[in-house]
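Repro case for the chain-ordering regression, as requested:
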Amino acid sequence: MSTKPIITKDEMLQHWLAHRGLTRKAIEKFPEKELFEFSIGGMRTFADLAKELLAIAVPGLKAIATNEAEPFNPGSSIQTKAALLQHWDEATPKITEYFNQIPEERFHEKFKLFGEYELTIINHILYFIDNEIHHRGQGYVYLRALQIEPPFFWDRY
Amino acid sequence: MSTKPIITKDEMLQHWLAHRGLTRKAIEKFPEKELFEFSIGGMRTFADLAKELLAIAVPGLKAIATNEAEPFNPGSSIQTKAALLQHWDEATPKITEYFNQIPEERFHEKFKLFGEYELTIINHILYFIDNEIHHRGQGYVYLRALQIEPPFFWDRY
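-- result from build under test --
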């Protein structure tokens, strides 16, 4: 049996950070008003979706890294695009810091996140990334509906 | 240095197959007509997005596993929901077969896919999965716009 990893811990982090860079570009594409007001079919605005991502990334990783159990708190007083982008950028070094604090050995441990969701740590982290891709894809439809060209999906490499 | 992998090759495959199960549920939620006709902002229909996913998954993995270089061919004559679901299901064992043929040692090799895109094999495979999540997220907006409840995003575990 080979033990060569198909992806290292740091590569997984870089993969996520590259996705966060693309999500930042998607946020930037929205006009201020539509970022906070536009949606389709009763869904949340893209600002609200981005705030959910912020409420998961650092708090989720911090909970895992420090073995704390805090409830999920999606509330946020962010009300401008500049503030949203600032929070986005402030989260980046914290994501790196907490992610790096989680040893490889723990990735297959089960962890109950936000006092509710019990998955292995690798599955939590994949969920964080997948959820971001999912909601950003929704933001792309909002942009298209607003006649705005979204960033290229592959613009992460 | 620890060499314990944060995710094994088989776990990555299972992760993808679970996402494919969710995408299948999303396809099933569409009424026949809207699957092939509805879209927003000039985008492709969800059937066309799903056909793109089919044109990537097995052909992409087969190219990597067999070291062939074929051009990307998104054309498909699928014209009914039943046929789309059948192709979806027929792809599943082939994805498993070709994925399993790629040894761990190759995941960090660069590979030029469809004669065009040069990435490491792990990045190609992450791209396949991410692209599916991205387009399925767009399908969720179509469903919401059609007043149809999408499947739960977490309904993969």
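Ordering looks correct now. The beta strands of chain B are 110-113, 117-120.
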